[in-house]
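---------- Forwarded message ----------

FYI, see the HAD family hydrolase record below. Original note from H. follows.
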Amino acid sequence: MPTPSPTTPADLPDAPDVRLIAVDMDGTLLDPDHEVPPTLWPLLDELEARGIAFCPASGRQLATLARQLGAHAPRLCFIAENGGLVVREGEVLSTDVVDPAVVVQVVEAVRALAASGADVGAVVCGTRSAYVERHDAAFVDECDRYYALLARVDDLTAVGDDVLKVAVFDFGDAAATTEPALARFRDTQQVVVSGAHWVDLMNPTTHKGAALKTVQRALGVTREQTMAFGDYLNDRELLDAAAWSYAMANAHPEVRARARFAAPGNDENGVVRTIAAVLGIAVEGVAPLDAGTAVAAP
């Protein structure tokens, strides 16, 4: 696939017919402090006025995403739990539930990894809440960032909830330690490194790309009318499902190779600036997008 190219207003056709924008959160929309850029709010107002749907697409929990998007949340589409849950304006469009027997096996594998000396813990992500059996402050603080609804339990194998995924937080290098430990589940499940410290295990049918196609069908929107932004490995299918696919300047090399275009990094408000430039939206406080800031992936 060709290397993504920098995008400037001069490179783009006038007012492309974009009807849906799907945006990853961490490393993409959120700034390095994991905060929503304040310039997003007037942009969302303008997108709504133009009839363009905005869809956060994240490994985060729905309740967390709704909290982050505030007053706009009831009118948005959401792809939560890496595609395990898809919602449009409060209505559930799809869920993809993991076999309870698999959940037990994964929890036991994470326990064994921890017993071997790895500093890891599992989060069982259900439709009603997320659950942890590791209760130390350092681990819970990491989980609180991503799970607004987080229950502490004694035994993750006894959770009475439909499970959308099992997430594992690794205080070390998740790709080097946790991913290999869960590799045996790849015969029947999807094991995805979703961040430097996170690995997610889900059904093989669960990913952001399939979820975005669900949103497209619900809205009557085509791939050619869809824009998407991502930065990490769990965003690859999301970008595949959108003709206007953007990798952030800070993206993983595989993600940059997958996207058609490059956007400035999340530390430069790249999502808001790129949307504003491509769609010709003036947003107060948004720096113009130019070739000096829209850096092409190597």
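H. also flagged this: Residues 5-95+207-279 form a domain with the Rossmann fold fold (CATH 3.40.50.1000).
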